[in-house]
Amino acid sequence: MYGIGSPVKPVEAHNLEKSFGQVRAVRGVSLHVDRGEIFGLLGPNGAGKTTTIRMITGIISPDRGRVYIMGYDVLKDPLKAKSHVGVVPEISAPYVDLSAWDNLMLAGRIYHVEDHMRRARAKDLLKMLNLSEAMSRKVKGFSKGMRQRLLLAMALISDPGILILDEPTSGLDIISTRMVRSLITDLRREGKSIFLTTHNIEEAGILCDRIAVINKGRIVAEGSPEDLRINFEEFRSVKIILDRDLKGIEEALGSFDVLIQGRKIFITCRRDEVDEVLRRTMKLAEDLGARVEEVQTTGPSFEEIFMKLIRGKER
Ligand SMILES: Nc1ncnc2c1ncn2[C@@H]1O[C@H](COP(=O)(O)OP(=O)(O)OP(=O)(O)O)[C@@H](O)[C@H]1O
Ligand SMILES: [Mg+2]
C-alpha cells in the first residue's frame, strides 16, 4: 500500500515478467496510468501487449513483478482491485443467443449493479454506442463492429473508473472505429482512466495522452505523442521520385534507412546527412541513366519513428 500523501495511481505495474516455455513474452515491463488519461501500449504483433494486459487484469500471474489497481495488489486483493475496472479482452464475445439488452443485464448482475441503475446505464450506453435500435435483437446477427461496441457497453455497465481495452478498434471499419474512439475520449472527459493497447500507430498518436512503445517484451520508449516526435527532431525523411524503377539502389544506399516503392525512394536520416543522401542518390540515378523528378524533405512521420524505435536504431 501507499504512504500518506502519495497519490494513488489507477494502474501501476512494476517489473512484470512472463515466459511461456522458452518464449519470454514480457521482460521487465513497468508502466502506470494516471488519472483521467488515455494511456496506450503500442507495439507490433507478438510484442507482449496482451500478456501485459492479462497480468494487469489478474487473468494470469506474472513470473515476477507486481500490479496495483487503485493501490490494491491485483493478486492479493483481487476483488477490491477488480471492482474499479472494466475490461474488454482481446478475444471475448457476448452471448450470441441473448439480445444486446440481456447481455447488458447479465453483465450488470455479474458486477452487482443494482437493478434500476443497471437499466438506466444500459439505456445510456446503448444510445452512446448507437445500438438502441438493435437492443432487442439476438447478438447472433450482429456485425463485428456491433459486437465490439456491445462488449464496451458491458465493460462500462458498472461505471468503473478505469477501463482496460485490448485492441479496441482492431478489425473494425471506419464508422465503428470512430464511434469507439469518440466514446473513449468522452470517457476521459468524464474523468475516467483508460489503458488500451494498439498496433495502430496513427491511433496511438491521435487518441493517447501518453504512449509506451513495446517490442519483444520490453518498453523501448515512453512519452506523449509529441515527446516521441521531439526525440526524433534531428531525423528527416527524404522522398525522391525517379522517372523509372531502379534495381540495386537499396544496396547502394545501405548505410541509410531506405525503403523503395517502385520509382519512389524513402530515406530516413539525420538532418546533417540530408545533403549527403541527396548527392549520393542523384549520382546513382545519373550513373544508371535515370532522372530525378521530385525531391521532398519532411520531418519523420509517426510511422517512421515507430519503425526506428522497434528496430532499435533510434540513436
Ligand atoms: N498462452 C501462451 N502460450 C504460449 N505462448 C504465448 C502465450 N501467450 C502469448 N504467448 C507468446 O508470447 C508472445 C507475446 O504475445 P502477446 O499475445 O502478448 O503479444 P501481443 O503484443 O498481444 O500481439 P498481437 O498484436 O498479435 O495481439 C508471443 O510470442 C506469443 O506467441
Ligand atoms: Mg494481443
Name its key features:
alpha/beta, VC0802-like, four-stranded antiparallel β-sheet, 14 strands, binds adenosine-5'-triphosphate, binds magnesium ion
Structure description:
By secondary structure, the chain is α/β, with parallel strands linked by helices. The protein folds into two domains: 11-228, P-loop containing nucleotide triphosphate hydrolases (Rossmann fold, 3-Layer(aba) Sandwich), CATH 3.40.50.300; 233-299, VC0802-like, CATH 3.30.2130.10. The chain contains eleven helices and 14 strands. A six-stranded mixed beta sheet has the order 6-7-8-3-9-10, sandwiched between helices. Strands 2-1-4-5 form a four-stranded antiparallel beta sheet. A four-stranded antiparallel beta sheet has the order 12-13-11-14, with helices on one face. Helix 3 runs parallel beside helix 5 (144-155). The structure holds adenosine-5'-triphosphate and magnesium ion. Magnesium ion binds at residues 49-50, 90, 166. Residues 20, 23, 25, 43, 45-51, 90, 199 line the site of adenosine-5'-triphosphate.
Care to give the gist of this entry?
With 315 residues, the chain is of the alpha/beta class. Helices cover 34% and strands 28% of the residues. The chain starts with 10 loop residues before the first strand and ends with a helix.
